[in-house]
Amino acid sequence: MAYKKALAAAAGMILATAAHAQAAGSNIVSLGWFRVMPNSSSDPLLVKSIGGMPVNQSQSGTGAKVKDADTVGLAFTHFFTDNVAVELVGGIPPRHKVEGAGSLSSYGEIGSVKQWSPAIVAKWYFLDADSKFRPYVGAGLNYTWFSDEKITSSAFQTKLGGPGSTSSVSADSSLNPVLNVGATYAVTKDWFVGLSVSYLPLKTTATIDTKTATGVHVVSEAKIKINPVVTFLNVGYRF
Q1: In angstroms, rounded to a whole number, what is the distance separating the alpha carbons of residues 135 and 236?
Q2: Higher per-residue pLDDT: 45 or 15
Q3: Domains defined along the chain, listed by start
Q4: Are 67 and 94 in contact (CB under 8 A)?
């Protein structure tokens, strides 16, 4: 009888520690793989000025598209109630290749850029706090900025400003909404695996300042819609 009582007590302790894995007050740190998949398109390249004189000449048929990228993601989630949580998410900025489109497609990769996109997302988790599988929906805000923008094609550089020309590139930053769905699965009371899918209606204006071999500045710009779908496959730890 004592043996059975000991087994029952042990089972009760195990169940107690397994419960409330994602309850009010829980904190979870997650590390994983971001796959950033732009649904990109762009307006034609617009030559804004030559030698400081406005021209505003559109280069008909030109375009650009942003390619997929992978990177490491990190997230911190705090549960305010058993169902409501807020997540801070970021990671190592992915480097996107930019390819020419339309009449620029023959150049292949024309540039590259790093994208920084930290976000804060409020989430509603379904089911009980002690459920192993918990789907959720979320919405929040993202701030995106870009760095290390550059032209990578010498042929495209020559098209922009002729032989011996150089260019500097910049892209506008922006504040954007984030829509998010996903789910977590509790492997133990403290360890989780998760998968989420997010969408960002993101656009930017890329400005190219080209200096010809004779010192004349040619300023061009392209409005680019990126609109990425982002997947995050991760492992999380509760503390």
Answers
A1: 15
A2: 45
A3: 25-238 (2.40.160.20)
A4: no
